[in-house]
Amino acid sequence: MKKLILIACLCGCLTIAKAQQLKSPDGKLTMTFALEDGGKPRYSLVYKNKDVIKPSKLGLELKDDKKSLLSDFTVTDTKTSSFDENWKPVWGEVKTIRNHYNELAVTLTQKETNRIMIIRFRMFNEGLGFRYEFPAQKNLTYFIVKEEKTQFAMAGDHTAFWIAGDYDTQEYDYTTSKLSEIRSLAAKNRKENLSQTSFSPTGVQTSLMMKTSNGLYINLHEAALINYACMHLNLDDKNMIFESWLTPDVKGDKGYMQAPANSPWRTVMVSDDARDILASKMTYNLNDPGKIEDTSWIKPIKYVGVWWEMITGKSTWAYTDEYPSVQLGITDYSKARPNGKHGANTTNVKKYIDFAAKNGFGGVLVEGWNEGWEDWYGHSKDYVFDFVTPYPDFNVSEIRDYAKSKGIKMIMHHETSGSVRNYERHIDTAYKFMKANGYDAVKSGYVGNILPRGENHYSQWLINHYQYALEKAAEYKIMVNAHEAVRPTGIARTYPNLIGNESARGTEYQAFGGSKPNHVTVLPFTRLIGGPMDYTPGIFEMDISKLNPANHSHVNSTIANQLALYLTMYSPLQMAADLPENYERFPDAFQFIKDVAVDWDDSQYLEAEPGQYITVARMAKGTGQWFAGSVNGDNSRISNISFSFLAPGRTYEATIYADAKDAHYKTNPQAYTVRKVLVTNKSKLAQLCAPGGGYAISFKIANQATVKGLKKL
Amino acid sequence: MKKLILIACLCGCLTIAKAQQLKSPDGKLTMTFALEDGGKPRYSLVYKNKDVIKPSKLGLELKDDKKSLLSDFTVTDTKTSSFDENWKPVWGEVKTIRNHYNELAVTLTQKETNRIMIIRFRMFNEGLGFRYEFPAQKNLTYFIVKEEKTQFAMAGDHTAFWIAGDYDTQEYDYTTSKLSEIRSLAAKNRKENLSQTSFSPTGVQTSLMMKTSNGLYINLHEAALINYACMHLNLDDKNMIFESWLTPDVKGDKGYMQAPANSPWRTVMVSDDARDILASKMTYNLNDPGKIEDTSWIKPIKYVGVWWEMITGKSTWAYTDEYPSVQLGITDYSKARPNGKHGANTTNVKKYIDFAAKNGFGGVLVEGWNEGWEDWYGHSKDYVFDFVTPYPDFNVSEIRDYAKSKGIKMIMHHETSGSVRNYERHIDTAYKFMKANGYDAVKSGYVGNILPRGENHYSQWLINHYQYALEKAAEYKIMVNAHEAVRPTGIARTYPNLIGNESARGTEYQAFGGSKPNHVTVLPFTRLIGGPMDYTPGIFEMDISKLNPANHSHVNSTIANQLALYLTMYSPLQMAADLPENYERFPDAFQFIKDVAVDWDDSQYLEAEPGQYITVARMAKGTGQWFAGSVNGDNSRISNISFSFLAPGRTYEATIYADAKDAHYKTNPQAYTVRKVLVTNKSKLAQLCAPGGGYAISFKIANQATVKGLKKL
């Protein structure tokens, strides 16, 4: 790496600024940092001689502060270092993660105010991360961020895979368009949601995935979002410059800070190979190492649940339709007339427990088990749930004992309805109740507008809450799967009990009108960059009117695509979301779901193109068994992969679950084939994938008996 | 009481409205309710043929609701009843309280919407209370109050004793003026405060005390403020009509309601004798009966504390001046350089414990004992205190054991700094810490702007919090004395562990520049209507520069006035607030403080004129010992009282602590006399009181030895 060199001004005019350079370990990425005229910090990024980030501003605008932290700086210190260590995640796509980067820490001192800000850059082979640090100092103690002014100046009108900027939801379908088209398409992108707040016609959310016309894949995101507001990006679509746009609080302020403090890391991933983006562990590597000493209680799980029947409208979360509204502790549910459609009743739950036990699943989730669902959203209701009082037909101890006898873990559900103060008031009691009744994992939800009223899902105040709930859960040895919370930013390295989030448009939307067929070819490039998603795949019946005649939604996916999701949508928490009876109709396809692992020692991305296809092979932790999966977007394609990931010198039986020739996500989604063939690590596969289709493969070492009956691929 | 009678329209035009009348048990008060043209509810109040409330509107304006709850009503039911029961408060001014009223409940049905609202009126001999009730019903479930539209139309330009309306503080000096002068005086009334938010040039707070030109005393307040926003009054000073003005939330809404629900009671007290206002128990009577089954742990207490030395600036709450700011759990206080002025150190605390034990006090309060005081206000700091981690020089267990050995209760201090989410997160741990370390009572504080940011001290969101903290304290058998919280509204009947509030301008302001000398002759008519005030009296050294040369504040009160406060400022929690050394300088005066009781079986108000003087006699619970006290306002006066409250046929020794002839709150505050005289229930006293002065008397049955040495009065 170079140190201090005099360099021509990055924007064409000569400055006597000391520019710094930082290269990735493999030398392909170069970051240049310099101070522009007036002491304004700038950075730029080049990958293999192609511009990734053109000279872009850095800094923060402060409230009630004439100077802000944008200019009048001098470089008073620079420190360079390298880091190269391996660490083992508790769960993940791979057994060991290499954390290898070159670092440059630039200390900036503001002349007039004598304030110090450090910008720390870490350059990995797959990208750059940088953050602002505010060390303990006399002249900077408490300050309020009016706006962060980090820019990402794009080198062209790239293609982007984006959702509209919003302070309250990420549950939109992705739009693929040029950056210049965002403005005209944003309103259409923002479909109706139970809680949504837009802020700019050219605002988009992170992580943002892009592809340039000269073959680069670029991803913008953040890592380690703790005690800070979530970052969106606002596009200046004249100049193609993104600028950070933080989520405001109720008063419009963007962050209350007290030095010493750090901002989250802003990340720029870049490669000419899309698979590198998916394989990158940079977001985790920028987070602090694990803070939980004994992690033996954190376990990946495959589960079913009393859920899809309510999502489709076949049954209800609510117990009764009798009252105009309910008040916990005052409404006497024992006197209420049951509506006869309540899904979370003991008998039905035991059916799911039986199904889970019979088919090798680890857990059963039940939603709608507790008092309060009759008017749980749309009323800004404060005391909406207490998280411990079951409905009359949900017998907590009977279910606890039955599940235990069957070797099944019950998964708790805490829908907060956005009433966050209420959740915090009850959270210790709720967590204790879980432990007393055999629940080790909780799916939490934040549906609807937030209380305290005026706050947004992604503000600093709420980011603080999600962290509070997570850290408290760790104290109780509870795993958390937080839906409608902020999208993850690698915090699961530090708190691996964060085993999932939703925080994007999940499978439920297939029952709310459907998602785009290529949705799942985008999500791993966007939402999954910071952590796994509880996507809840495994739907076999695509015509929802078959479950609920009043619901004409269609699941825009083939069965083979649904199977592939267990590979392509990595998560330590995987649901088989459909109803048991739908699985029983397709036992051969269901076999894959029964067989697939949820925790991995190795993963290899074989094919990837955002918005079009993703193919990945993974080796199960412990067993060493290989699986592969491919999801396809809008157009038919042939997936060409080699099985070179298999061990050399061995023969495997591959069971391939694929779209039938005439399969189509809309017109013929349930047409699939299952075939078994012999393969080795020299085999190649050319597999036809339907629109919205894909395939899934399970491998096992072939023994003599197997070899006899099968053909080679 | 009359039922349905046709009556000429209250505003001069004939309506075919059914008017209802409700009289007090003694017949002196008459309330008339009627519907005006358009089905608009109205009420009016007459006392002994004098107008108290001219015809005034009732109802609520709802958000996003065309109709609101203001008009289009018909009376679909009326119910009348009477109630007459005695109940015993756990602590109080009297042993038994009579709850005697006539009630009228009017059911109003809104024609267009078919919604039902009940207005319930209760008429006591000393005043009227009424509230809105929203029964469970199909057509009214969730609704948002845009503004409550309860009017109190005054019959003239009365004299009022008022403080400016404010969403965050009541710590203003009272202004005495005509209603018509409020507008021009409001800005001057609102002195600077660490958290303040005005809303109208003619807004005032409740309770509001007034005196009419035709000799009536009128008080407007509310009772049972639970899950609703605090009510201020906004004056239409053209027509002399007050209208309710609720405290808004962050978005400007005034209340989130779910039927079934009630508003608080709106109260109008009236008498031609000011003493009736002070003696009234109406506010308590309108609250629900006690909800705590075993109240044996709730005990009035007289206490001293490590507090005044910090208030005056003699010592500090903070432990160190070394850091630009502190972060709990990160700042290592064990390494910090002590500033040498930290009041809450073990040695100093033990001194106070010794002083308390030697002089018969029950408890010692200590502020500044816990980490975080270095930057506790002005920064909108979220994680400001944890309520359990002491400074290095405050030894929790040593102090606990020492206090116990001396028979002294330590009183805890929880300053929240307005960071309410933080307090709620820690409250269970904090309460448990208290019980583990011998603390049964806590003084809580809410200094500074509220977090969640944007909320105000008196909003529905915060009223809910104060109630949450109080009810949770009851579960832990903890007594609460909440400063800067909303002013009380009689809730101590239901939760008698609420032993105090500040929520007004207390003694500390005498060290912040001084309060008006007649301040204490107003407070019982205003702030104390809803519950006791922890006024922390007993200051003997009026020149604060003697404690802290940099503080030139002067306590605008004589010593005799300070002694009287133990009678006139009723509270189950009474502090002797000055430093032990100042009491030791005046042992004869201090004797009164040592002798005076804090809990009473009987109280008789002897003289009262708001803004001028209050004289009261009280009989101690248990001992039956009598005490009396008188506080005086700006002008010299002679207080004329009879001792008819004493038991007949007995002789008492009365020790009279009075202003010396030349005493004056400003120029000669420490001049007092102590004389012992013999009295009977036939004796009369004519006592000179200085400006800002008064007197205090303790009585004991005279024995033969006493009689010999003393003169008769």
Characteristic key phrases:
homodimer, 713 residues, alpha+beta, Beta-galactosidase, Chain A, domain 5, TIM Barrel, 3 domains, 10-stranded antiparallel beta sheet, 37 strands, 16% helix, globular, disordered N terminus, signal (chains A, B), Glycosyl_hydrolase_97 (chains A, B), carbohydrate binding (chains A, B), GH97_catalytic (chains A, B)
Summarize the structure in short.
Chains A, B: Residues 599-700 form the Glycosyl-hydrolase 97 C-terminal oligomerisation domain. Two copies of one chain form a homodimer. The first copy, chain A, has three domains: 2-285, Beta-galactosidase, Chain A, domain 5 (Distorted Sandwich); 301-503, Alpha-Beta Barrel (TIM Barrel); 506-571 and 591-713, Alpha-Beta Barrel (TIM Barrel).
General description of the model:
Two copies of one chain form a homodimer. With 713 residues, chain A is α+β, with helices and mostly antiparallel strands. Chain A has three domains: 2-285, Beta-galactosidase, Chain A, domain 5 (Distorted Sandwich); 301-503, TIM Barrel, CATH 3.20.20.70; 506-571 and 591-713, Aldolase class I (TIM Barrel). Chain A contains 13 helices and 37 strands. In chain A, the strands form seven sheets. In chain A, strands 7, 8, 9, 10, 13, 14, 16, 17, 21 and 22 form a ten-stranded antiparallel sheet that branches. In chain A, strands 28-27-26-25-24-23-29 form a seven-stranded parallel sheet. Chain A has a six-stranded antiparallel sheet with strand order 30-31-32-37-34-35. In chain A, strand 18 (231-236) and strand 19 (241-246) form a beta hairpin. In chain A, helix 5 runs parallel beside helix 6, helix 7 runs parallel beside helix 8 (460-475) and helix 10 runs parallel beside helix 12. In chain A, 55% of the residues are buried. Mean pLDDT of chain A is 96; it is low at 1-16. Chain A binds chain B through residues 136-138, 141-142, 249-251, 253, 256, 258-260, 323-325, 327, 330, 375, 379-382, 421, 424-425, 428, 452-455, 461, 464, 468, and chain B through 136-138, 141-142, 249-251, 253, 256, 258-260, 323-325, 327, 330, 375, 379-382, 421, 424-425, 428, 452-455, 461, 464, 468. Chains A, B: GO terms for molecular function: carbohydrate binding. Chains A, B: Residues 22-289 form the Glycosyl-hydrolase 97 N-terminal domain. Chains A, B: InterPro entries: Aldolase_TIM, GH, GH-type_carb-bd, GH97_C, GH97_catalytic, GH97_N, Glycosyl_hydrolase_97. Chains A, B: This is Alpha-glucosidase. Chains A, B: Its cofactor is Ca(2+).
